[in-house]
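pasting input
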Amino acid sequence: MSDRSLPMRFARPGAGGFLGYLAVVLIILWSLEGAGWSADRLISSPPKLADFFDRAWPPSTHNLDRLAWKMVETLQIAIAGAAIGIVLSVPVALLAARGVLVGRGVSLAVRTILGFIRAVPDLAWALVFVVAVGLGPFAGMLAIVVDTIGYCGRFFADDMENTDPGPAEALTATGARRLDIAACATIPAALPAFVSTSLFGLEKAVRSSTILGLVGAGGIGIELKVGFDLFDYPTAMTVILMIAVVVIGVEQIGAMLRAAIMGQAR
Amino acid sequence: MPLDHPATHLTGTVTDLQATGLAKSFGKARPVFEGLEFRIRRGECVALVGANGTGKSTLLRCCLGLITPDSGRVSLLDQDMVTIKGPARRALRARTGLVGQKHNLVPRLSVLSNVIHGLLGRHSGPRYWVQGLAPAAARTAAFAALDKVGLADLALRRADQLSGGQSQRVAIARALVGNPRFLVADEPCASLDPQAGEEVMALFISLVKREGVTVLFTSHNVQHALSYGDRILGLQGGRIAIDARARDVSAQDMARLYV
């Protein structure tokens, strides 16, 4: 047997690594202080939370038909916005993917714009479109369109950049144009990933659309706001449960479709 | 017998490919090859051989303008492949083809659509993207090319449902459908079992000989290189160590390339 000693289970961090860990801990503590961390308030919250659930339970069934129609409107906002956003994301992604249609400069510019779109929260986009087109679901749908482009445009571009370059190279060698190569080799190769990303986009749109009503952009969110404003907690609880059921349902359907289309791996 | 000086034995009339002073390196590493000089005559079938890492694939891609060399010239079908740009380069490439070792078909599309893509150098636009939209002439030409490789009855099968040998035959049909003048094949049998590799190589060479296409192919199979190549180009240490007619090269000469 060799006289070499067994290696350590874990490597001892160097001075730089130790300082890095220390910095992370300090940043988290600093953030907790800025976020108003209060152990007293946390400890005193369970009775208040129990009181809320006591007043909210059982959920109200008085306005169930109106709430159901608002939920339908919410889904319509999400589906229409996501569909338009996904379709528009394809040409945007073609301009964002480096080496597919454009070079580094254009790709960087388009990716920066997509980064800006994602950096602005969906509620802020809804506020912008309420100002632009007025209150109602149309403003919400436009907010979902922009939000979906920011999300799908970036990930479609990543999906295209990560495809096997072989088929594209074979077509390049025959003198094909870049658009033909993208249409015939790159997009078909990225299609399963597009479908998966689109389903995530739809799930994200459904989640977003449920709260757009808070700023007057249509959907069931307004009912949630009114419920809390009027201390009508049973109605608010009904809305919360409806949102949970719909969001979980859409996520489950999305997961099943993804598994059917792509298998277990993304 | 191998020749020390490249291309001196050639007496042919038309040169389809001529490399002059070709060099290529990646990053600050030692050049993959430098000072390469050779030419390939019209209708010739040339086997490019050498150990792993000697730059065979890089050289093929330099010849087709897919990689820009650090220095030197590549004259392909009487045009300078290094400096030619835009539509002129696409027009030149429309007269060339590439068969890769990974077949490089689009997996989700039909066999016929994949072959029609071989016409994209001459015809552009959505009508050539999938076989369902393609003009009758394109479908007929692609089907005829498939028939030549014995796969006409699989025209509507998805490419990812083919065996390795069938995939490579489709790749050959795609490369030939546009009637190229110059064809490059990068280890076309590397991913196939010996029997399928033998069948594919025999079919490939018989088709290109019949069509009079000039071919530059790489292979690690010494017998393939000696049997199917009219001429052998051997790369070693970034230089051409063998440039000779296949019948003048022995298996021992070839073995020295891999030392």
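fyi The longest helix of chain A spans residues 64-96.
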